[in-house]
């Protein structure tokens, strides 16, 4: 991405020479806002907007459950981030929104942890993360007529002599995504692409996520079951009066993809391949692996006619996750039947490795 910023100068020059189809405002935006080198100097830090987003989620969570989350005692909660400075800051932002930061956050561990078991799973690191064959379908898509036409379209729109490589295209797409502010105007880098271009570039990313973290490899569903097994045990304890009021883990998009896979969510009838892009597919990274993605499960105790019952509701990005149970509400029996068989066994890892981060 840092290397691709030089392309901005070619784009501006092309416009001044009458060779670019971008408009004057697009060029002005690139001149003024196109090079934020701070993001490269703090590559492993949470952005200010990311921190604010996590804090806002914490605030809304407190508003939704004021009685449950008021005056939390130390033994009644767990907040733990996965390894990484930006994970720690994410947890701090959420806790600050939830209780003005007056709660303890556990330190991340470099050993095995249920929220990111893939980081210490030797089999995943060897057979998936560091296996170039995992990206065969994504690389195949880069050779299709559709992708090549998109690449040519971008080149002609910019009107530059600088020959764009696949790596350049990917970097410019990342600059568009990473510098788009939800509270300000769109990233100036996004003006380089049409909506159709973005759909094509998204699919190249979908294929990477699908095979590296999702349905494209069977180990991903196994790893996704590990935190879900912990969820079941936590709710069982709470149901028996021995649990905590809130347990919050902060992890990576990799784990979110694995959770979807373990829950059989967003699964397409036909496997995703690099040969053909299905515009109506369910597996969409722009919907599933967004910045600040979150999944909540809420256990409720219901008292009706002197009878106590329990249900569990799931939320994805703060909206009811309906496919798990009817209208998103699981009776305790439904929840138990679905989750008690979740396997937390890590024998498939074969051996442990140091975290890759």
Kindly estimate the percentage of residues that lie in beta strands according to DSSP: 5-15%
Order of helices and strands: HHHHHEHHHHHHHEHHEEEEH
Mean pLDDT: 92
Major sheet size, sense and barrel closure? 4 strands, antiparallel
Radius of gyration: 23 Å
Number of helices: 15
Q: Per the principal axes of the C-alpha atoms, what is the gross shape?
A: globular
Structural class: alpha+beta
Q: In terms of per-residue confidence, which ranges show pLDDT below 50 for 5 or more consecutive residues?
A: none
Quaternary state of this entry equals single chain
The first-to-last residue Cα distance is: 19 Å
Q: What's the count of strands? A: 6
- Roughly what percent helix? 40-55%
Secondary-structure topology with pairs:
Elements: H1 7-16, H2 24-33, H3 38-41, H4 48-64, H5 66-69, E1 77-81, H6 85-99, H7 122-129, H8 136-141, H9 145-158, H10 166-178, H11 195-212, H12 218-239, E2 246-250, H13 253-262, H14 285-288, E3 295-304, E4 307-316, E5 319-320, E6 329-331, H15 332-339
Parallel strand pairs: 1-2
Antiparallel strand pairs: 3-4, 4-5, 4-6
Helix pairs in contact: 1-2, 4-6, 9-11, 12-13
